[in-house]
Amino acid sequence: MSVKEMDKVNLLNFDRKGMEAFFIAIGEKPFRATQLLKWIYQEGISDFAQMTNLSKSLRNYLTEHCYIDPPEIVFEQNAGDGTRKWLLQMSCGNRVETVFIPEEKRGTLCVSSQVGCALACTFCSTAKQGFNRNLTTAEIIGQLYVAQNRLGEEKKITNVVMMGMGEPLLNFDNVVAAMNLMMDDFSYGLSKRRVTISTSGVVPAMYRLTTVCDVSLAVSLHAANDALRNQLVPINQKYPLHELLAACRDNVKLAPRRTITFEYVMLKGINDTDADARALIKLLKNVPSKLNLIPFNPFPNSLYDCSTPETIDRFRIILHNAGLVTTVRRTRGEDIDAACGQLVGKVVDKSRRHLKLQQQVASVAAEV
Ligand code: SAH
């Protein structure tokens, strides 16, 4: 970015409302917003001179004062199973990872919301890096923008999961604006069922989300009792299970057939016994739920083992027999470290968190 461009407005930062406000502020009609969204996201045009339905003077104004500045791809990896991972350069030297997971009938992009993460979940590699900063709206929607441009015509992104690096609900406004753009008919037009936000359980933000943005909700549960969840997902110490589940029940009130997806990472000897499965059934009794069991993905110096396939299957069957729709997440992109919890990017660990994690895990092992 040149010094001159630093003063320019990056239009990727605006959802439709923001874009309308911008045009009103410069004395233009609000409908310019939808024209711009179409050019940027549907036509892939970033040169204002080519936006032929805008007046000459507006094109000149935009060229002088605005730009479209997506993140830059610094590295791309393709896995044997078709999964693709991009390392993206954000401003200030920060890097995050974005993953595309192709399936027969859909293509899912796993999007990051923060550089690093503040939440210190003990089984997640992003946590080891500590928190650096929130991504801007432009940097979040920009992941979709660069991925779709790179994939070209033949592979379409049909689904987005906010399951990359970071806790999306701790970057509320930027994540909501980016999700609004994903669902806007003048932009990517994804249906609300195809945009999923995953949270470790930031309860007040879950209530707020229900009132402002109707997307699918996934909750990283990972334990059926507070003692264990306090250790695995430390934000549970602030918002314990009964508060988390009340927020989930509030969310499903939005629509009659709505369900919450609960993610549950399978950790050998930690949360994978028959008793754990039964506790889960009891816990989720009053919440319309789907269970997604995630085989733990190891990373360098990770402190857990994945449950055996037999244990995972046994766990799944207990839940299934109790009437819970339960799937086991197929691990994708393992050969390029693109699986859940393996995304790294580049952040300087300011917190010496890894040492703290080792101590925490030692205490979980002692308690369980
Ligand atoms: N902060 C959000 C979203 C990011 S993580 C959240 O907690 O939901 C997306 C999912 O991957 C979460 O369910 C997370 O708990 C899970 N995950 C993290 N590390 C993992 C690992 N090493 N193996 C498997 N799943 C992991």
What does this structure look like?
The chain is of the alpha/beta class and 368 residues long. It is built from 13 helices and 14 strands. The strands form three sheets. Strands 3-4-5-6-9-10-11-12-13-14 form a ten-stranded mixed sheet. It has a two-stranded parallel ribbon with strand order 1-2. β5 and β6 (107-110) form a beta hairpin. α11 runs parallel beside α12. It is globular and about 70 Å long. The structure holds S-adenosyl-L-homocysteine (SAH). S-adenosyl-L-homocysteine binds at residues 121, 123-124, 163, 167, 198-200, 220, 263, 265, 294, 296-297, 340-341.
Task: Compose a concise summary of this entry.
This protein is of the alpha/beta class. It has 13 helices and 14 strands.
